[in-house]
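Below is a concrete protein record.
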Amino acid sequence: MENQNSAKKISIIALIISIIALLLGLWHCYSCPCCHCNKKCEAAPQEQVQPQDNGSAQAEQASAQAEAAPVVADEEPSQPFVNPDGVTKKKAATAPFIDLGLPSGTKWRVINEDGLMTYDEAIEKFGKQVPTHKQFNELYEKCEWKELKDGGYKVIGPNGNHIIFPFTGFINCTGEFRMGNELGDYWTSTKKGEDAYRVAMNAKGIVFQAHPCCYARAIRLIEK
């Protein structure tokens, strides 16, 4: 009986010692700032070293936004158009024709006619003064074409004289104004079936293309 009581006392003492050890362990854990059992002491995220920003990310984002943006102008400019030489369209009726030194002797007016016209309107109003595909092609082949930073082309003839072709946009067959200040679009008098040749020019270059006559385009006159 005495042995049983001694065993019970030893067990109780061992239990008390275990509890004390556990309490001491817990106290040590929560008092130590680097202990893994303390949530407040968990290692903070290391500061990430960012690569030097050379603007490439912003440039890529801006490029993506630019590609997603529309590239046509749906409204006509509110201000009267002034070409790079400073002559308004309303002065076109009295604007001179200039000799560029072309082999054919063709002279070109220094400014567009007022407004945009369909092919039929232009031919009815100006007849043979609307340049042909061949006359425009001579201008293209024999002159130096320099793109202007504000939009348009400066065309320098063999004799050094020059004229300006501004980017004027066009009006499509449903009456919508498009590509203002982005595209120069000019009628020739040369027909191709139901269409007629136009001269289109932008920052990428110049092309001759047959197109529906119901489009309204810029008109630049010539005289022989």
